[in-house]
Amino acid sequence: MDFIDRGLLSSFFNAGGYVLDFTNSTFDTFTSQSIGIAIQQKYGLSKGASLTKFTKEAEESLVIKLYKDLFRYYDEYNSIDSQSPECVKLYNKCKSILDNNSNISISTPSIKNIDREYIRKLAQRANNDIDNNEFDSAITKVRTVIEEVLIKGLEENHVENYKKGDINNLYKNFSHIYKMETDRDMDRRVKELLSGLNKIIDSIAQMRNSNSDAHGVGSKRISIKKHHARLFVNSGIVMADFLTEIMNNTKE
After folding, report:
1. What are the tens digits of pLDDT across the range 4-50?
2. Are residues 88 and 134 in the same domain?
3. Strand ranges (E), 8-160
4. Which range marks the domain in which residue 64 is found?
């Protein structure tokens, strides 16, 4: 696959920085599950620009795997017949490129290794964002890691019927699978603490994508102060760490 082919693939999905209907967090979740890389988190650009940069420099097998998954997503939720003739032409060219490279060996990545070290490093990056007054970027990182932890927990238990991007729904399913609130011997004070964690999840879910994930609106869009952003990030990191420990304890 040459430079021109890669350019055609990225041009179909890069719509002025946007990629289909993905938010920042759902795009990173999608690419993580497809190829094991959170592309936007890696490059720190818009969704479209991050995809273009990845397409130019990544290993060919990874590029093909991601675009096959992107087209599968596109075909599931969109109709190419309703698009302009130019769009249909580009669509067919891209499909032809992928078909011509179908003989390339593509390995499906294993579930991303999300452990305490991964969460610690992400917490550091999120707090660095806050130091630079990039509150929306910090909040997006926290939303993404919590969603990754929840999805990993569900997938390790072979749960497939969940709603990506819906943290409340993911947490509800996770809590049920790991029986987080059914231990009769649990101390009352611990139960009260768990209730507080439930409120953290609810608050994170309410920081909607329109506030934290929209492309191109700048770091001042969220009308919160630095210490509030720090509280949000650190509370979310504690939650992600706690959920990871629940999964680890279940394996022991």
Report:
1. 999 999 999 998 889 988 888 788 888 988 888 889 888 989 999 99
2. no
3. 14-15, 18-19
4. 3-101
